[in-house]
Write a structure and sequence with these properties.
It is a single chain. The chain is of the alpha/beta class. It has two domains: 112 residues, Enolase-like, N-terminal domain (Enolase-like, domain 1, 2-Layer Sandwich); 228 residues, Enolase-like C-terminal domain (TIM Barrel, Alpha-Beta Barrel), CATH 3.20.20. Helix 2 packs antiparallel against helix 3 and helix 5 packs parallel to helix 6.
Length: 347
Amino acid sequence: MIKAIVLKEIRRPLRATFATSLGRKDRLAGVLVTVALNDGSSGTGECPTSFVQKHEAIPEVKRVLREASAFLIGSSVDAYREKIAMLRRRYAHYPMTISGLEVALWRAHIRHSGIPEHDYFGGKSRVIETDITIPFLTEDASLMKWMNYIIKKGFTVFKLKVSGRIAEDKRLLSRVCEMLDQKMRGYSLRLDGNQGFSRDTLPRIMDFIAKNNYPVELFEQPLPKDDLRGLKAARKYTAVPVVLDETIFTVDDLRMALEENLCDGVNIKIAKSGLLESQKILAMARRYGMKVMIGCMMETMTGLSVAIHMAAGTGEFNYIDLDSIYFLHHKNRYGALTIDGPRFIIG
C-alpha cells in the first residue's frame, strides 16, 4: 500500500554551460519524487526540466505530482502500471513529470518484491561505456576547458551539439576535430541538431562533413520534430543514420516514423517516455531492425541510474548516451554503480 509521496526540489550547478539550438543553461533543475510503502519499502524517481518541454517547469511539475499523489496514496503499488496509464491520459502534456513518478512507483514495487534493478532488465552486462556531449560552445576558452576535461576522462565518442547556423557549426566542427586530432588517435562524432536545421541547411552541413572527411557516425534529430516531409526527404541526402529523439515519445510515434520511413533509429529516454513505454519502443525498434540509442535529460544519478541498468541489463542498445552525471560535480560510487572514466560498472 502506498503510504506517502514526498517531493524535493533540486538545483545543481553545471561544470560547463549546456548549450544547444534550443537554449542554454548553467544549472540543473528538477524534482525528486519518493514513494513510500506501508512495509517500509520506497523508491525515488526524478522529474528533470528540459528545453523541449518548457511548460514542465518546477512549479507545474510540483502541481501535477501533488494532484497525482492524492490519486495514488492508499492504493496498492502492485497496480502502478494501470495507475500510470490513467495519469498519462490525464496529464498528457506532462510526460516527463509522469515518467519520474512512474520510476518512483516501479522502484518501490520491485524493492517490495525483492528484485534488483539490474536483474529486472535481464542482467546481461555489468559494464557499459557512454559517449559525452560537447555543447554548442562558441566561446573558444569555454570549449577548450570542457574538451580538456572530457579527453582527460578517457572519452573516445563525442556527441556534438550543432545549431543549424551553418557558419557557426562549421567553425565548431572544425575546432573540435582540430582539438581531437591533436590530443588523441581514433575518435568518432555523433551530431545532435536538436531540431535546429532546415531542409536547406542540412545538405550544406553534410557536404561540409563529407568534404573534410570528419568521422561522423550518426545525425540525431536534425529537423523540427513535426517536419515529417522534411525528415523523410532528409534520409535521401544524409549519408549517416538519422536517429530521432524529440519526434518520438511513444510507441505510436515510432510506429508512425516506421510507416513514413522517417529515420534509421530512435533515441529512447526513460525521462521523456517512461519505463514501460521505453520498453515498448525498444521492442518495436528491435523487431524492425532499427538502431537504438539510450539517452538522458539533464539528470542526477537518481534518474540516470535507471537508464544505466536498462542499457546494461538488456544489452540491446547500439549507442549509449548517458552522460549527464559528467556535467555535475559528482562522486564515483553510487550504491552498486561505479563510474570509471566513460564506463559505468555495476556491482
